[in-house]
Design goal:
The chain has 120 residues and is of the alpha+beta class. It contains two helices and three strands. The chain has a three-stranded antiparallel sheet with strand order 1-2-3, covered by helices on one side. Bound molecules: zinc ion.
Length: 120
């Protein structure tokens, strides 16, 4: 009975659709850092500093940071959350694909959904 392995393949398709809805991904982390601006007489000289958000990521083995303006913080945070979800989804897709391979007979993969046509 191929039904069980077919079910796994259909699960994969559903997860692909979820990845498309996630829209964008950032692999790294968002953090708020307190910085002193260096202006003479600014209150931050005495206090904790000004809060600034930074996106930190690794490239070529080195850690790098990008300043994130306050109005873009939510967007960046969403990208970071989406990336974590992406990693989990890829793992789940791989698990389903492997489970499908372990069944006999191997089912045909259902046709990929058509893009840009009619309803949906
Ligand atoms: Zn200051």
């Amino acid at each position: 009975m191929p039904a069980e392995s077919l079910r796994h393949l259909e699960e994969v398709r559903g997860l692909v659709a979820e990845i498309q809805r996630l829209d964008w991904f950032l692999q790294g982390s968002l953090s708020v850092v307190m910085r002193r601006c260096g202006r003479a007489g600014c209150r931050c000289v005495e206090g904790a500093g000004h809060p600034g958000a930074y996106f930190t990521y690794k490239r070529d083995g080195r850690s790098r940071s990008v300043y994130v303006p306050a109005e873009r913080v939510d967007e960046v945070r969403q990208g970071v959350t989406n990336h974590r979800r992406l990693v989990a989804l890829v793992q789940a897709m791989t698990d389903h694909a492997t489970a499908a391979l372990r069944r006999r007979p191997w089912p045909r993969r259902p046709p990929a959904p058509r893009r840009r046509r009619g309803a949906r």
